[in-house]
Model the fold of this input.
Amino acid sequence: MAELAQYPFTPKSIRVEGGHTMAYLDEGTGPVVVMVHGNPSWSYLYRNVVTALSKGYRCIVPDHLGCGFSDIPQQYPYRLANHINNLELLLDHLHVTGCVLMVHDWGGAIGMGWAGRYPERVQGVVVLNTAAFHSSRIPFRIRICRWPLLGALLVRGVNGFAWPATFMAVEKKMAPEVAQGFLAPYNNWNSRVAVHKFVQDIPLHVTHPSWDTLTEVESSLRRLQDKPMLICWGGRDFCFDFSFYQQWQTRFPEALSRCYWQAGHYVLEDAFTEVMADMIPFLERCNG
Done:
C-alpha cells in the first residue's frame, strides 16, 4: 500500500493457522494495550490511539486475516473461531501475560472471545461500539449485503460496504486522505473477501456455523465481571445503537459508561479527544 495519512508505522507479521501471514503493530514500551478492530476497518482505526499512547504503553494492534496488511486468502473460513484463535496465537507469541483490551465492532466478539478464555491475562477492557453477545438487530443496509449473489456484488464488486462506512459510520466528514486510509486495503474484488465474509458470519440463527462460538463468547463474559471496564459509545451509531450500549451496562453494571451523542459508529473518528480524556485515566487505574 502507498503511504497512508496518520499511519507512520511499520507492521510486523506472524504465521497463523493455514500458514497465512497476519500483520500487527507493536509500538511503544510499557503496560500492554491490545486493540482489536472490526469490519470493514483494520489497524488504521487505532492509528491515533497508538500515536497518543505509545509514549508510555506497548500498543499491540492486529490486522485480522483478510484485512489491512495481513494476507487475504481466498479459500479460508473467516469464521469467528478462526479470528479468536489467530488473536490467541499472536498474544501467546508476544508473551502477553497482562493487558488492557480495547475492542470495536467485530473486535468485540473476537477480543472478548480471547479474554473469556484467559481472564487472568486481562487487566481491564475498553468497549467501543461493539457486541459480544447474540442479537437479532441488524439494519437492512447490512442485511442486504448478506443476500446471495447481490451481497457479493455489493460488497466485493462495487465496494458497497467499506466505502459507505467512510461517511455512514461518522458524523463528522472524514478528510479525503483519512477515508483513503480506511479503504486502502480494499481496492478490488479479491481484497474484499474478508469484508464480505465478516458480514456473512453474523450468526442470526442457531444453524449458523458461528452461532455456538458466539454463544461461548457470551457465556464467558461472566468470567470478566470483576475486570475494570470503560464503555465509550458513539450515540449516533446506526448499527450498534443505544440498545447495545444499554446491554453492556446491564451486563457490567460497575463499568464506567460514556456516551458521546455527537459521534457515530467510528467513535474514535468523531470523538477522539473526548474518548482519550476518559481513556487515559482509566488505563492509569488499570495499571496502577
Q: What stands out?
A: DSSP finds twelve helices and eight strands in the chain. Residues 272-286 form the longest helix (15 residues). The CA atoms of residues 124 and 243 lie 23 Å apart. The domain at 12-286 is CATH 3.40.50.1820 (Rossmann fold).
